[in-house]
Design goal:
This protein is an alpha/beta fold and 274 residues long. It has one domain: Protocatechuate 4,5-dioxygenase, Chain B, CATH 3.40.830.10. The chain is built from nine helices and twelve strands. The longest helix is centred in the middle third of the chain and has 17 residues, at 158-174. The radius of gyration is 17 Å and the shape is globular. 49% of the residues are buried.
Length: 274
């Protein structure tokens, strides 16, 4: 896996979250509940939303505060830029945020790409994508020695999701250090709260049951606009292969509690898979 010698610059600093470093530190600290930071436990994966911090930051903060953040994190999120980049695009760059540079875990990224026919080294998919970027300030705050493998994911059929999960798990098993999967997804989009809540409970039920195949089919057949269903499906397959036994929901909410509009809400949830 070739390094390009460039740094991936922030795409949504100043819109999704504060661009000023001091303001961002204060914002993240406020969104990470101090009492919960003392109750950490190891996890195979954390599932968190990726809206602007004003909408979903408290959900992300509560979930990430409840899991141990190792030095190495694999980030999986959806590709919102249709047609840009490989379907399973592994970044080959270090990433910049207002809080500083986060280095690529090049050894793990290289092992993943070399050990799989599905994962490809590709920076193009990451250039304007926000779903992984918005997680970094939280992770930087919680782990000062953070190294990352960012993976931007497009639509895939279920068999490829299963294989990608197996490949991901194998790379983690072969790695000498602890690794956490951080999966970025929002849930249902732009429907009335009553509809969004009903649909989201179906998807969350499958996640809590650790049933990635059923989650994939539920989202498809029930027409649930969960943007990160493919990353979550892959991560669940990987977590199961790594020995996951349970999932835990920390918080569920929707954008209407901030915007006041309950007719067009987006659902957000924070979970851990252990």
């Amino acid at each position: 896996m070739e390094r390009e010698g460039m740094i991936r610059q922030p795409a949504v600093a100043g819109t999704f979250y504060e661009a000023d470093p001091d303001k961002l530190r204060k914002e993240v600290a406020r969104l990470l509940p101090a009492a919960l930071r003392k109750k950490k436990a190891p996890a195979k994966a954390a599932i968190v939303p990726h809206a602007g911090y004003v909408y979903s930051g408290e959900v992300t903060g509560e979930a990430l505060a409840r899991v141990e953040i190792p030095e190495t994190v694999i980030l999986l999120g959806p590709n919102h830029s249709t047609g840009l980049g490989a379907p399973l695009a592994v970044s080959g760059e270090d990433w910049e945020t207002p809080l500083g540079t986060v280095p690529l875990a090049q050894d793990l990224a290289t092992a993943l790409v070399k050990g799989s026919k599905l994962f490809k080294s590709d920076n193009a998919a990451h250039r304007r994508e926000h779903s992984l970027e918005v997680q970094l300030p939280f992770l930087q705050h919680l782990q000062k020695k953070l190294r990352i493998v960012p993976i931007c994911i497009s639509r895939l059929p279920l068999p490829q999701c299963r294989q990608a999960g197996m490949d991901l798990a194998q790379a983690v098993k072969n790695y000498a250090k602890p690794v956490l999967l951080v999966v970025s997804t929002d849930l249902s989009h732009h429907e009335p709260r009553t509809v969004v809540s009903e649909k989201d409970q179906l998807a969350l039920g499958d996640i809590l049951s650790l049933d990635p195949a059923h989650l994939y089919r539920t989202v498809l057949t029930k027409r649930i606009s969960m943007c990160g269903v493919i990353p979550v499906t892959i991560a669940l397959f990987a977590a199961l292969e790594l020995g996951a036994e349970r999932a835990q929901l920390f918080r569920y909410t929707d954008s209407g509690y901030v915007s006041g509009d309950v007719q067009r809400v987006v659902g957000y949830a924070g979970l851990a898979v252990r």
